[in-house]
Amino acid sequence: MAIRFDPKNASDHLLAHRRVPIPRPLLFALAALVFFTAVYHVSGGVFGVPEALRHRVTHITLFLILTYLFFPLGRRSWREPLNRLFLVDLVLIVLALVAYVYVMNDIRGLAGRAAFPETRDVVVGTVMILLVLEAVRRTVGLPLVIIPGFFILHALYANSFPGVFYTAPAEFDYLVGYLAFNLDGMLGIPISVASTFIIVFMLFGAVLVRSGAGQFFTDLAYAATGWMAGGPAKAATVASGLYGSLSGSTTANVVTSGSFTIPLMRSSGFRPQFAASAEAIASNGGQMMPPIMGAAAFIIPMYIPGASYRDVVIAAVIPAILYFVSLFAMVHFEAKKCGLQGLPRSRLPRVAGVLRVGWPLMFSLFTIIGLLLYGFTPMVAGVAALLVTILVTCFRPETRMSPRDLIAAMETGVRSTIPIVMACAAAGLIIGSMNVSGLAGRISGAVVDLAGGQLWLGLLATMVVCVILGMGMTTTIIYLTLAALVVPSVIEMGAHIMAANLFVFYFGALSGVTPPVALTTYAAAGIAGSDPWRTGWEAAKVGLASFIIPFMFVYTPELLMIGTPPAIMVAAFTALCGVLMLAAAVQGYFVGRLTLWERFLMAAGAVLLVHPSAAGALLAFVLVAAASLRNVRTLRHGRSGGQPGY
After folding, report:
1. Which end of the chain is more exposed for a tag (fewer CB within 10 A), N or C?
2. If DSSP states are collapsed to H, E and C, what string results for 389-431?
3. Contact, 292 vs 368, CB < 8 A?
4. C-alpha closest to that of 462 among 515, 513, 503, 517
5. How many Å apart are CA 27 and CA 426, to the nearest integer?
6. 642, pLDDT greater than 50
7. Buried/exposed code over 576-595 (b: 16+ C-beta within 10 A; e: otherwise)
8. What confidence category does residue 471 fall into, taking pLDDT thresholds of 50, 70 and 90?
9. CB-side neighbour CA atoms (13 Å) of 13
10. Cα(94)–Cα(92) distance, rounded to whole angstroms?
C-alpha cells in the first residue's frame, strides 16, 4: 500500500496541512523548489538537456540551495525552529544565486577564458568551490572535505611535497578557473552523470517505494522460495535481488524488504545476527544487479573509451548471478546445518496469483532492459521507466498514488540525491586538481612499482584501499577516486579495462557491509535487534564469496561476457562451482556436516577456481569429489547432522 505521509518531506507537511515550526512561506518554497528540480531533470530525459556547461551549473546550483535548506546550520533538521544561523544559510543561498547569474550571463566567455580567468572570474570561481565544500561537509561529512582540500593544496604547493607527490605547482588563478569553469573539473564527468542518469533513477526508485510496489517483489520471492529450508532468508535474497535490480539503492532495499524479512527470518529459527547479515548482503547486492545497479555504475562508461552503459550492464550479469547464488548457498547451508524448515505452502502466496495481480509492475523492468539494449541512454530509459511505473501503479488500489503521493515521491528522490550530487562535485574537485598537478599518473606508476608488476598484489592493495575509503565514503566517491588513481595501474599490470573498473566498483559497494564501518549492515542490525559489531563480522562471513568474485572476473574476463560463447559458459560453470565450494567450506555443510579437513578441501578447490587452468580445475573437482564422497558416506552411516529437503 502506498505510504501516505513522510515526515521528512516538506510537500507532505504542506499538502496534508500539518503544522511545522517554520514559516509557511519557507515550507512552500522548499516544496516548490524540490518539485521544480524534479520536473527540470525529468524534462531533460524527454526533451533533452541544455548545453553541458549551462545544464551542469544549473544542476549544481539547485542542489546547493537544497543542501542549505534541507541541511541547515545549527539545526538537526529543516523542521526545527529557525535560529540566528539561518541567516548564514540565506547568505550562502544568495551567493550561490549570484554566482549562477554571473555564469549564465557570460557562459561562452567563461568557457573560452577558463585557462586565463579574469580577476572577477577567480572571485566567483573561488566562491563556487567554497560553497560546494561547505555543502559536502553538511551532507557527506568532513572527511570528504579534507580529501579534495588536500589535492587542491597539493596542486598549489606541489613543489613542497616529497617523493611521488613532488611536481610543478599551479597558479591559483589557473587552478580556480580549471576547477570552477572547465568541464574536466568540478563540473566534469561525475556531475554530468549525477545531473542526467543518477537523479532520474533515484526518482524512479522513490516512486517504487512510495507506491508500495516493492511488496510485489517480496511476495513473488516468498511464493517461489518460502517453502524451502530456510525459506524466509532465501526469499529475502530473491526479493532484494529483484527489487534492487530496479531501485539500485541499498538503503531502499533494507527498509523495503528488511523490515518484513528480518523478523520472519528470526521467527523461523535464524539467529538475529545471521538474519541481519543475510538481508544486508542481499540488499547490498542491489548495487550490482542489472539493469540499474548503483549510482556509480552510470559513471563507469565514462572511464572506458567506446563503452556504453549497456556494455557495463551486460558485463555485470554473470558476476551478479554469482553474487546472489553464493548468498543463496550460504543461507541454504546455514538452514540445513541448523535443521530449519520452510514455511507451509498454505501460508505462502502462489506464484501465479502474485503474477496475476502484479504483472503490470514487470513492465518497468522490461522498459529499462529493452531501451538499454536498443541503445537509448540510461537517462531516457530511466525517464521512460518512471513514467511507465506511474502508469502501471494505477492498476492496483494498493499501489495507486494520488497527485500528493507523486509529488512527495519526487521530493524523496531529489532529497536522497543531494548527498550523491555533493559527493560527485567533490570528486570533480579531486580529479580536476590531479589533472592540473599530473598526480594521477605519478601515483598510478608508483602503485605498479610497489606491486612489482604483480597483478595479484596490485589487486589486494586496491581492495584494502577500497575498504579503508569505505569507512567514510559512498560507493560513488570510492569509484571516482580510484578510477583516476589506481585503475590505470591495474590495467597496466594486465587486467582488462572493464574488469579493472568493475573490480573497484564491486569493492566500493562491498565496503558498505565490511567492518569496522558497515552502514548497510548496521541498519539491518537495528531492525534485527542484534549487536552491530557482531553482525558486521557475520556479514563479512556470509558475504565472503562476494569478495572472491571480483578476483575471478579479473583473471577470467569471460565472466564479463568477453570471449567466445563456449569459453564464457565454461568460465561461468567453473566460477559457479567455486562460489558453491567456498560457501560449503565457510558454513561447514554440504550434503551433511563437513569435518575440518573436508572444509579445507572445499576451500582449496574454491581457490583453485579463482584463476582456473585445465589442470587446476581438474584438481579442484578431484578435491571436492573426495570431500563430497566422504560426506555422503558419513551421512549414510548416520554420523552427520542435517535435514532432508530443499
Report:
1. N
2. HHHHHHHCCCCCCCHHHHHHHHHHHHHHHHHHHHHHHHHHHHH
3. yes
4. 503
5. 29
6. no
7. bbbbbbbbbbbbbbbbbbbe
8. low
9. 21
10. 5
Is residue 617 within 8 A of residue 573, CB to CB? The reply is no
Neighbours of 600 (CB within 10 A): 14
Q: Which residues of 398-419 are buried (b: 16+ CB within 10 A; e: fewer)?
A: ebebeebbbbbbbbbbbbbbbb
C-alpha span between 514 and 536 (Å, rounded): 6
Determine the Cα–Cα distance for residues 286 and 280; give it in Å rounded to an integer. 10
For the chain, the residue count is: 646
Instruction: Tell me the helix, strand and coil percentages in the chain, rounded to 5.
Output: 75, 0, 25
CA distances from 273 to 245, 391, 458, 522 (A): 25, 39, 33, 10
CA 537/CA 496 separation, integer angstroms: 32
pLDDT at position 444, please? 66
What is the pTM (predicted TM-score) of this model?
0.74
Task: Measure the CA–CA gap between 381 and 367, rounded to whole angstroms.
Answer: 7
Q: Measured between alpha carbons, how far is 119 from 335 in angstroms, rounded to an integer?
A: 68
Gap between the Cα atoms of 485 and 329, Å rounded: 36
Rounded CA-CA distance 601/585 in Å is 8
**Cβ–Cβ under 8 Å, residues 279 and 261:** yes
- CB-based contact 519:304 (threshold 8 Å): no
pLDDT digits (tens, 9 = 90+) for 115-147: 888 999 999 999 999 999 999 999 888 877 888
Q: What is the pLDDT of residues 528-543, one digit of tens each?
A: 777 777 888 888 888 8
- 3-class DSSP assignment, residue 144: helix
